[in-house]
Specification:
Layout (H helix, E strand, L loop, with lengths): L6 H13 L15 E3 L11 H14 L14 H14 L3 E5 L2 H12 L5 E5 L4 H9 L3 E5 L4 H8 L6 E6 L11 H11 L2 E5 L14 H4 L8 E6 L9 E5 L1 H10 L1 H4 L6 H16 L2 H19 L4 E2 L5 E5 L3 H13 L2 E6 L10 E5 L6 H15 L1
Parallel strand pairs: 1-11, 3-4, 3-5, 5-6, 6-7
Antiparallel strand pairs: 2-8, 7-8, 9-10, 10-12, 11-12
Helix pairs in contact: 2-11, 3-11, 4-5, 4-9, 6-7, 12-14, 13-14
Length: about 375
């Protein structure tokens, strides 16, 4: 009998089990007693009554789905309204909404890196940016993490168009990219800067306007950024923001825009409501940063090794993948949900607990979370 064509899958599964790297789905109930420091609802808006009602109203008005790609039947007045307000809030000329932040990143990188171009990519970039580099027709050079001099060295060798690609806040450790220095390096060599502000929007900048706003780069003619609607805005989807002629180019050339079904109206409605709520309550951004700082200071004071957060992500290192998994499981058993990042999700191979600060976390909940993490580690 011939060998199964999927035998290699079973071999990989056995290898994952031996390394302690098996991942499993854990469906969560609608109501949970767990204190959640694992999700990315940084501003606590995913269940806000205004946001959920806006989602329901949009579904009743426009239907359960977009019904087609944005260029066919998937664009509604709601999508256009979200794009206008998102661009205005973040300080950019134009915006284009996608079905996910992943799709937005693929679009930005592949569409802005034509054949013959050089893409300079930070070693710590998110998987969606990495996949964009792999799919792009340009040549990619990966450089040391958060190192503008390494970017300059890479750009010095270029002969055609060039693109520097970086997260603004890196999703694993929560550290920030040196955006001003990266922009300066780009301008020395006439390169464009493309950033992913998934973890900056809603947390950094004046009232949560994002890392580009905070760095004084919002609206610059040589800067493009992507955002997600699924973190601080508590919804689903993503967007690319930049100069109007760049966004027009994406409409005509980005495959993840042209060939993908548009964002569901309910998600667009929820994101728009969350954006308006943030504009009305800008203090939520500062509170999320304050909670992150408090988590870091109290955990490191207890002897744990953590990375100082620049936004809402707090990374706490674990000795091994198996111990990280056990640590997270013990936290869950004690009523606290935390993220557990292990290879290959972490570029340096070091496993971590990943904590996400939330603006709606009370001081009492903060005390409880810190106590559980410390006790579970013991």
């Amino acid at each position: 009998m011939a060998q199964s064509p999927f035998e290699w899958i079973d071999e990989q599964a056995r290898a994952r089990r031996r390394a302690g790297l098996v991942r499993t789905l854990r469906p969560r109930p609608a109501d949970s007693a767990l204190l959640d420091l694992a999700g990315n609802d940084y501003l606590g808006l995913a269940r806000h009554p205004e946001v959920t009602e806006a989602a329901a109203r949009a579904a009743r008005t426009w239907g359960g789905g977009a019904t087609g790609s944005r260029l066919v039947s998937g664009s509604t007045e709601l999508h256009a309204e979200l794009e206008r307000e998102l661009a205005g809030f973040c300080g950019f000329e134009s915006a284009l909404v996608f079905s996910s932040g992943y799709a937005a990143n693929l679009a930005a990188v592949t569409t802005l890196a034509p054949h013959g171009s050089l893409i300079v990519s930070d070693a710590g970039n998110h998987a969606s940016l990495i996949d964009g580099c792999r799919l792009a027709r340009g040549t990619t050079q990966v450089v040391a993490h958060a190192d503008p001099d390494a970017v300059r060295k890479a750009l010095h060798t270029r002969t055609g168009p060039a693109l520097v690609v970086s997260d603004t806040v890196f999703s694993v450790d929560g550290d920030a990219a040196p955006l001003a220095d990266l922009a300066a390096a780009c301008r020395e060599f006439g390169a464009a800067l493309v950033t992913d502000d998934a973890h900056g929007l809603g947390v950094l900048g004046d009232g949560g306007r994002g890392a580009l706003w905070a760095a004084g780069l919002a609206g610059a003619p040589d800067v493009v950024t992507t955002v997600t609607l699924s973190k601080s805005l508590g919804s689903q989807g993503g967007a690319v923001l930049g100069p109007a002629h760049v966004i027009d180019h994406l409409v005509n050339a980005a495959r993840t825009f042209i060939f993908d079904t548009g964002l569901a109206p309910a998600s667009a409605g929820a994101a728009l409501a969350a954006l308006r709520l943030l504009r009305r309550e800008p203090e939520r951004a500062a509170r999320a940063r304050a909670v992150a700082t408090a988590l870091y200071e109290r955990l490191t004071a207890a002897g744990l090794e953590a990375v100082r957060p620049h936004a809402a992500v707090v990374s706490v290192r674990a000795p091994s993948p198996e111990q990280a998994l056990r640590w997270a499981a013990d936290c869950r058993e004690a009523g606290l949900a935390v993220g557990c990042f292990r290879p290959p999700s972490v570029p340096d191979g070091i496993s971590r607990l990943r904590l996400t600060a939330r603006a709606d976390l009370t001081d009492g909940q903060l005390d409880r979370a810190v106590g559980v993490i410390i006790e579970a580690r013991r």
